[in-house]
Automatic annotation (TrEMBL):
Molecular function GO labels: 1-phosphatidylinositol-3-kinase regulator activity
GO biological process, one term: phosphatidylinositol phosphate biosynthetic process
SUPFAM superfamilies named in the record: SH2 domain
UniProt cross-references to Pfam families, sorted A to Z: PI3K_P85_iSH2 (PF16454), SH2 (PF00017)
Full protein name: Phosphatidylinositol 3-kinase regulatory subunit alpha isoform X4
GO cellular component: phosphatidylinositol 3-kinase complex
UniProt entry keywords in alphabetical sequence: SH2 domain
Length: 305
């Protein structure tokens, strides 16, 4: 019952047999989870609480189709909106196929986003590595210029007065270049900081996607297995699941194989009963055929997969 309600919208419900003798339980979907409500049975009447006022379970359910269950419980402010019907095997397969298709589409969408983020993260890491290398080189250059400034200051103190004017020009040029490189270092460090923050944001989004991908993959595996157990062909299941990397390889027949398939001795049979025909064609590819003697004298019948 929980599995039937798992992918239903809020307000979906079903009634199942209870473990109690002659008892029933209402299963209700609310707030994306399944709730169980015991249906009381007393003196031939039914209800959620004593005293029971309804003559039958259908009458009880019909009443709450148009009224909120908050009359029974304040936490259940919802009506019984969407009955979940008993499923035939065919409808069960169709429902499973629809769930698998939606899970596959959502998985591919989130997976594409994850791959895009992964590429962006790798690109960020490369840019950060390049910036860190540039920062290291910039620091070495700044250290060199600072040493040159110190040497210039000491040299100027000992230089003759006549040479100090030209030394001052060189000193000012050196200081300007040092200031320029220090400013460039700050820009590089800021760029590196911003790239690191961007990488953290990307990694954070990737981490948020991982549980969704694991859950969707688990759902896909579950419904793929179910459909295969119902004898749906593997390639059909893979296509429903949106597994785009799954390929159906077709190998062309050789000339000898073509002759075998075209030769009547391989597909023209005498009288065959239904079970024998089924055994020949069972699990064959679509389009496989044979021709046999018909029950109508002098006529043939085609059996095709």
């Amino acid at each position: 019952a929980n599995e039937k309600l798992a992918d239903c919208r809020d307000g979906s419900f079903l009634v199942r047999d209870s473990r109690r003798e002659d008892g029933y339980t209402l299963m209700l979907r609310k707030d994306d989870s399944s709730k169980q409500i015991r249906i009381e049975h007393s003196n031939g009447k039914y209800g959620f609480t004593e005293p029971c006022d309804f003559n039958s379970v259908p009458e009880l359910i019909e009443y709450y189709r148009t009224r909120s269950l908050k009359e029974y419980s304040a936490a259940l402010d919802i009506m019984l909106l969407y009955p979940v019907c008993r499923e035939t095997e065919v409808s069960e397969v169709k429902r499973a196929a629809n769930i698998l298709k939606k899970a596959g589409e959502l998985f591919n969408e989130k997976s594409s986003r994850y791959e895009e983020l992964s590429d962006n993260c790798f690109e960020c890491e490369q840019e950060i590595a390049a910036l860190e290398e540039a920062i290291s080189a910039q620091k070495e250059l700044i250290n060199f210029l600072e040493e040159q400034v110190k040497i210039h200051i000491n040299f100027r103190k000992e230089a003759p007065t006549t040479e100090r004017a030209s030394l001052d020009v060189n000193y000012n040029l050196l200081v300007d270049r040092l200031s320029e490189q220090q400013s460039g270092l700050k820009t590089l460090e800021q760029d590196c900081l911003e790239k690191s923050e961007k990488r953290r944001e990307i990694e954070s989004e990737m981490n948020r996607l991982k549980p969704d991908l694991w859950e969707l993959q688990h759902k896909k595996d579950k419904y793929m297995l179910f459909l295969e157990e119902k004898e749906m062909r593997r390639e059909e299941v893979e296509l429903l699941a949106g597994n785009t990397d799954f390929k159906i390889y077709e190998f062309p027949m050789t000339e000898e194989e073509e002759k075998v398939n075209l030769s009547p001795e391989y597909w023209l049979f005498g009288a065959l009963d239904r079970d024998t025909v089924k055994s020949y064609l069972d699990k064959s590819l679509d389009g496989t055929f044979l021709i046999r003697e018909s029950k109508n004298r002098g006529m043939k019948a085609v059996s095709i997969m």
